Amino acid sequence: MDKENLLQTANNEHWDLVIKPKNKWYDIDLMAVWRYRDLLMLLVRRDFVSVYKQTILGPLWFFIQPIITSLTFTLIFGGIAKISTDGMPGILFYMAGITLWTYFADCLNKTSSTFIANAGVFGKVYFPRLIMPLSVLVSNLIKLGIQVAIFISIWIYFLATSNVIHPQWQYMWLLPVLVFMMAGLGLGFGILISSLTTKYRDLTFLVGFGVQLLMYGSSVIIPVSSITNEKLKMMMLLNPLTSIIESFKFIFLGSGYYSVAWLLYGLVFMLFIVALSVLIFNKVEKSFMDTV
Amino acid sequence: MSTVIKVENLGKQYRLGQVGTGTIATDVNRWWHKVRGKEDPYLKIGEVNDRTKKGETDLVWALKDINFEVKQGEVLGIIGKNGAGKSTLLKILSRVTAPTIGDIKVKGRIASLLEVGTGFHPELSGRDNIFLNGAILGMTKDEIKSKFDEIVAFSGVERYIDTPVKRYSSGMYVRLAFAVAAHLDPEILIVDEVLAVGDAEFQKKCLGKMKDVSGQGRTVLFVSHNMVAVKELCSIAFFLKNGCIGGIGKTNEIINNYLSNSFTNVIERVWDIDNAPGTENIKLTKAKMIPNVENVTDIVTINTPLLFEFEFINYLDELAITIAIDLSSLSGIDVFTSAPTTVKKLMRGIYVTTCSIPGELLNDGGYSVSIQIIKDGIEMIHRETDALVFEINDTIRPSGYTGKWPGTVRPRLNWTMNLLDRRV
Asked: Looking at the predicted structure, is the pLDDT value of residue B288 above 50?
């Protein structure tokens, strides 16, 4: 065989894995993520089992948290500040907002520290890094389920004892879509921040109070209907979280700003941010250990 | 046999110092070159990774020009001193971090054990942790399930399997963690020496397990600075020196080569004040080994008593400083650590401290002495690694046996023999 032929055979050789300095930006191994699905479920189990270890009330804390928050909001925003609740009972109105909002905020907060918090494990063994933030989404889904259950029991109580709420039954199928959108937004922003903070951590300081501030601009407390300034209203709707939370309230309570156009905008926004953040995450995960 | 790992022109560059506002200029410059489609200007500079010398830039090549191939079923040993690049190479092979240049091609499933018990959660039971750790290492739930009983039996902690691992003794913890790792079935296994943990019995079990693995035609890469373990396990080896491959070949040859290459007798060191090791207030200025022999030209044998002399400067009053030494054999075994039993407060000044090792204690072979500066008798504030290196030669034994006498030390002990009864 002459030299060229040899070279050819060498090139044709099959390798299962090639470790290179950098990946192509589109080189995302989603199959690997799927292969590690067992790990994802075990991480979810770990989170669930370990959170309330050595507490007396245990999983009861899942219930106590949202109830106390809603009561506080009812007292402060509804009772003292007298902010409109679209004519709904305060507790129900705030709880509707908080339920989905908490899911988003929890996902964002936890995934935004993916690299820094897991540096210990990531520094010792390889697995698709995306597994970690994805497991956070699923873990929080359990918590969301419990909180939705509380919300629904209070909702049923009001449904039976009063006639102020008007559920939009025909839109109920939208609920999983809303949750999916929330998950996507939480993941997208979370891992984006995580990827951007491995070297320069300045952004992490923003996350803490940024999420707090965002809540006020996401119609958790202030409904879109109570805003008369058109510019302000537009700005609020540009935030994709607003239409998700408003739609959730609309479906359950019958009051809220429901617009297919804005929901579609939110969906596109979400898909865009997920795609962008996964690409950046994928780029960063290769050598973040050197700078974290 | 086919090649399962092929490493070509591998290099890894690190930046020293801290990440902060200072580093952003480099990053921007790098990015700007990339935008214009030019080559990264920082890849050209960077120095050989010799940590004992002060460099001119803060970029170093932790690994450079690494080329090697591993064939299926081979057990490759990678040896080298601390900081030679072993761990960096392992990290790149296990995909924890990416190389700066070059690439690695791999055939088959690869699993790396840089640590045992990665991802163990203290609150979870042993059972849950077996599953979690196994999954992190790349096993599926079904695989772990089918090996679960074996893993538990291997670890020997059946009784505690449903107790949270935070209640485990450290020994049990390590046993359980290693048991999971030992039941991985990859085609290629990368093992760091940190696995040499636990008690002697367990270590034997681990080495045995690794031998089994390689006996089944699987490929193993074993990194260590313990020559004994490498000799035991590996058929071929290479050593790393300052980030480059120093030689590759049969294990025995490489180890001999490495030992003679890396160590020359250093029995006296004198440092000037500017380069003296130590801290701001304590500086080591001199270290010397003085063999107690009749003529200076006499060789040091196992019978020679050795005297060590260390000089240091103390810049502060009322500081309780002692010098301690730890001695290790050149094959990487810690022999002993010794410190004075009394700690006195010292006034400012230059001090000399001595320590003697009697003859008829050490075995023949190479030893290195590391000097520790200890504050208040407990806190080590500086350790000068391998400050002195020396060789001890064998003597002609009365028995006539000339083979290598096994053991790290060879103390003369008192033996007796008496006749008890003449009638048998």
From this structure: yes
Size of interface A-B (CB pairs under 8 A): 105
Give the pTM.
0.75
Cβ contacts (< 8 Å) between A43 and chain B: which residues? Answer: 132
Nearest CA in chain A to B7: A19
The tokens for B264 are 């020359």
Is the Cβ–Cβ distance between B159 and B182 less than 8 Å?
no
Of A91, A231, A248, A87, the C-alpha closest to A163 is: A87
Query: What ipTM is given for this predicted complex?
Result: 0.84
A12 confidence band (pLDDT: 50, 70, 90)? low
Residue with tokens 């707090």: A212
CA distance B369 to chain A (A): 31
Is the Cβ of A250 closer than 8 Å to some Cβ of chain B?
no
Distances A29 to A40, A207, A282 between C-alpha atoms, Å: 16, 29, 9
Any idea what the Cα angle at residue A151 is, between residues A149 and A155, rounded to 5°?
115
Is A190:A269 a contact under the CB 8 Å cutoff? Answer: no
Structure tokens at B220: 């193993």
pLDDT in tens, B173-214: 888 988 888 888 888 888 886 555 556 666 677 777 777 777
On chain B, the residues whose CB falls within 8 A of the CB of A49 are 123-124, 128
Cβ of residue A226 closer than 8 Å to a chain B Cβ: no
A94-117 pLDDT, tens digit per residue, is 889 999 999 999 999 999 988 888
CB A285 within 8 A of CB A131: no
What is the rounded distance in angstroms from the CA atom of residue A91 to the CA atom of residue A145?
A: 18
Which tokens belong to B385?
Answer: 């690694």
Chain B CB contacts of A287 under 8 Å are 97-98
Nearest CA in chain B to A124: B114
